[in-house]
Amino acid sequence: MKAEVIAVGSELLTPTHIDTNSLFITERLNQLGIELQGKSVAADDRTALRTIVTDALRRSDLLILTGGLGPTDDDLTRDVVSDLINAPLEYHAEIFEAIEKRFASRGLKVPEINRRQAMVPRGAAILANPNGTAPGLWIEHDAKRILLLPGPPRELKPMLERVIEERLASVAGATRLFRRVLRITGQSESSVEEKMQPLYARWLCAPVRIVTTILASLGQIELHLTAAAETSDEGIRALDAAVEEVKHALGRDLFSVNGQTMQEVVGDLCRAGSLRISAAESCTGGLVMTRLTEVPGSSDYVDRGVVVYSNQSKTELLGVPADLISAHGAVSEPVAEAMASRMAEIAGTDLSVGITGIAGPTGGTPEKPVGTVMIAAAWRRDGKPETRVRTFRFVGGREMIRFQASQAALDMLRRWILEAAP
Ligand code: ATP
Question: Tell me: the pLDDT tens digits for 113-123?
Answer without folding.
Answer: 999 999 999 99
